[in-house]
Design brief:
The complex is a heterodimer. Chain A has eleven helices and no strands. Chain A is mainly α. In chain A, helix 2 (21-30) runs antiparallel to helix 10 and helix 5 (74-80) packs across helix 10 (161-189). The longest helix of chain A is centred in the C-terminal third of the chain and has 29 residues, at 161-189. The radius of gyration of chain A is 23 Å and the shape is elongated. In chain B, helix 1 crosses helix 2. Classes of the chains: A mainly alpha, B mainly alpha.
Chain lengths: 204, 77
Amino acid sequence: MEESVIVNAMENDRKKHGFDWLTATLLAWALPGMGHVFLGRAKRGIIICVTITALFWSGIAVGGVMTIDSRYEKWWFYAQILNGASGVISWLRSEREFREIEKTPEMQQLIADTLYMRAGMGFKTDRTIRISASPTGRPDELQMATDAKLAQKGISLACPEEDVARSYTGIAGLLNLLCMFDVFMLAVIGDGKTAEETIRKAGT
Amino acid sequence: MLGWTIFCNPVALPTSSILWLLLPLTFAVSLVYRAIKTPDADRIWLRTLTTFVFLTAGMAALGVAIYLLQLFALRCL
């Protein structure tokens, strides 16, 4: 069979559905499964939505508000934020806790000291750098003080809850990334059904 | 005494229960994967079940293999 027939069939498939890949992928990120619903795969979309959302919020239920930690657990955070609205809501809640802790005079002093020390050592002094872990990879004084404050509030995470909560939320995010990729591919090249039909007809 | 609030405070999990929490995680991975990959939507649940069993058995086998390997390594040392 000529290659042009296959290419035309796939192009017709895509045109028939007329999917907007950007809208579909953004929807898939914002609310897991909604990308599939947008593409007319409602059953699969609902299954994905319920499973990923339940997995993510189970993780938050186990680990609490500090399961999402954009300051000291960056790699987990990148995976968790792939959960869309759920990830963003949880992130904003944890940031609020961090900001409340930072308001106290002793923490302000510690932040200023860390900033001064790192500036003296030639490190960047923007907000992201000054609150991250030390260059040696060990928790610095600021991080330990933050952990102590979180423990006082009863929201600090420790093993084994930490492992379970971060695994659940992080894997939920990575599963949603897989779904986003699937939605993107479906929106760009179609589901192949119309193309298959055209090719079969052309072959007979 | 601080009050416990769901989605705010962590749950105190007994260490012995961690392995059991692998099962819902494996099931969720199987279900999402099969929801994407199964061509016939009516067969998603059946395929999910088989994937779940394969995944769980595979991880158990891997765990046993690593356990035996470390036993062997400890004897050699």
